[in-house]
Each structure stands twice: as structure tokens, then as C-alpha cells.
Amino acid sequence: MTSIRSGARRAPLLLLLLGLFAGTLFASLPARAGTPDDYLRQAREAQSTGDLQAAERFYLMVPPPGPLGDDGQFVESRMQVARQRFALKDPDGAEAAAREVLAVYPDNAEAVNLVESVARERLPKWRRYLDDTLRFLPTLLHGSLMTLALVLFTMAVSPFGGLLIALGRISPVKLLSGACWFVIWFFRGTPLLLQLFFIYYGLPALGVTLKPMSAAFLGLGLNYSAYLAEIIRGAIQSIDHGQTEAAKALGMTPWQTMRRVIIPQTYKRLVPPVGNEFIALIKDTALVSTIAMVELMRSADQIFNAYFNVTVLVLAAAIYLCFTSVFTFVFERVEHRLGVYERR
């Protein structure tokens, strides 16, 4: 009985000693190497917590591919290191990581582009801006031609459309006046972007499919015709009613009165507000990029998404400023010629 109790007391001690021996034995064994996917997972977790040093350490633990290659883990790991070092202003380290990739895959486009970016980073700032301008400007100018085409088309069409809507709006025929009022109310009361979406994406559901350019022309033409209609109506109704009575006394028809007496006098009153609308039109053309039209804004957006280079946005802004400056100067000259401002 005494021996049984003594053995029971020794059992925990033996188990403790056995556990310590097993722990020492397993600790002395070499640790099992992780897989490339394990290293990438640990690196991403460290990166998500902001521990960039640990992330880089795990990325660098991914071994080069064997004779049979891998699933892209090596390229991903080294390019992550290269991008991280480049963001931390370590161009030499970024280039070293990218060249590890090129040593295995000489045609890897991402590594080649990063090495080129590092070489560009070492250039003086003025040289980088000049190179960026020479590289991006041709594409932006090509896109600006479409922007200019949209502006000129809308400038040519919307004044005539606005005049017809304005005349219908002040017509004594209730049905015609109501229809023109509805057009003005709808196109001035809804966003231009929504109108472009409906014309390009909504009309196909009704059996009408338009190409992006046709949809852009139609949307801009209708929208600006509605805006100009109210401007023209206000200019027409600002002419003294006595002139209409005088024309009627001379035997003119209402159409002759409008064409020969009223409308010619509205020109100088129309130029300032119409000029403002057309200046806004230059910037509103950027909205057609949402319906797959490749104009200036779309071209700038595509280049920026590809290179993440702010210079392209500066160039696009400069082109827009050039357009608005030219049109502003033209309208100011027209205003001067029509005598909008008193000469002192």
C-alpha cells in the first residue's frame, strides 16, 4: 500500500521530466522550412500592420524558382520589395530587387519598367519634367482634338436649338409652349452626366443604340440647347415691346418682326452669358469620358493610371487652360465689337 502511494507521488514528477526531455529534443531538431505561399502570407500580414521591415524580411525568404519554375511567388515577392524600397526613397535597393527578377526572367515588363523608373529618378527634376512632357504630350494632344471637336459641334448646334426652343417657349400656342417648357425643365433639372448615361446605356433598352461619339454629341447638344433657350428667351423679352408694335404698324408679320427687328438686337445681350456657357462646355466635355469617349480627360486618366505620374495631370490642366483662355479672348473681342461695354 505504501509503495502504491509512493508511486502515485512520483508520477507527476516523472511526467514533468519526460515533458522537459521531449521539449529539449524537439527544440534541437531543425525547423521545417515554410513554403513560398507561407512567406507571402506572413509578409502581407506584416505589411497590413505597418511592419515594413518584417514584411521585407518575409518577402526575401521566398526562394528563387527551381528548374520547373513556380507560380509567380518569386516575382511577386521581389517586386513587392522593389516597390516598397522605391516608395521609401531607396532607389538602389529597389533596383537590386528588380534585377533579381531580371536575372531569372529577363523579359519581365514590370521589373524592366521599375529599373527605368529608378534611372529616371536619378535624373535632375527639370530633365524628368521635360522627358515626361515629351512622352505624354502627343497622346494628350490627340485626345484634346476630340475635346475640341465636341466643343465646336456643340457651339454650332446649341444656339440654333436654343433659338427654336426659346421661340416655342414664348409661342402663343399652348401645346408648343408646354412642350418646350418641358424640354427646358428636364435638361436643366437633371445632371449632364445622368443624361449621357441614359442616352448611351439606357436607350439600347428601348431599341436605340448609339456609338459613344453620337451619344456625346446628342447629350451635349440637347443639354446646352436647353440652357441657351432660357438665355435667348430672356434676351428676346428684354427688347422693348414698343418695337414689336411699331413693326406690326409697318405691316410686318410676327416672323418678320422677330427675324428683322427683335433677334438682331439680342446679339450684344447674348454674348456674355452665352460665352460663359461655352467656357463651361470646355470643362463639361470631360464627362463624356464616362461613356468610353477618349478625349483629353480620358487620355490623361489612362496615362495617370498606367504611370502614376502627376505631370500628366499638370499637362492636361494646362491644355484646358489654353482652350478656355483662347475662347475667353475670342468672346471678349466679340463683346467689344458689338459694343457691350461702354467706351470711355
Number of individual domains: 2
Strand content: under 5%
Low-pLDDT sequence parts: 22-32
What's the pLDDT, averaged over the residues?
Answer: 85
Major sheet summary line = none
Give the H and E element order.
HHHHHHHHHHHHHH
The level 1 CATH classification of the largest domain is: Mainly Alpha
Q: What is the 3D form?
A: elongated
Integer-rounded radius of gyration:
36 Å
What do these coordinates show?
The protein has 2 domains: 87 residues, Serine Threonine Protein Phosphatase 5, Tetratricopeptide repeat; 212 residues, MetI-like fold (Orthogonal Bundle), CATH 1.10.3720. About 3% of the residues have low confidence. Helices cover 78% and strands 0% of the residues. The protein has 14 helices and no strands. The protein is mostly helical. The longest helix is centred in the middle third of the chain and has 45 residues. The protein is elongated, with a radius of gyration of 36 Å.
Short synopsis of the structure:
The protein has helices at 2-28, 36-48, 52-60, 73-87, 91-104, 109-121, 125-169, 174-189, 192-202, 212-237, 241-249, 254-284, 296-307, 311-338. The protein has 344 residues and is mainly α.
Ordered list of secondary-structure elements with their pairings:
Elements: H1 2-28, H2 36-48, H3 52-60, H4 73-87, H5 91-104, H6 109-121, H7 125-169, H8 174-189, H9 192-202, H10 212-237, H11 241-249, H12 254-284, H13 296-307, H14 311-338
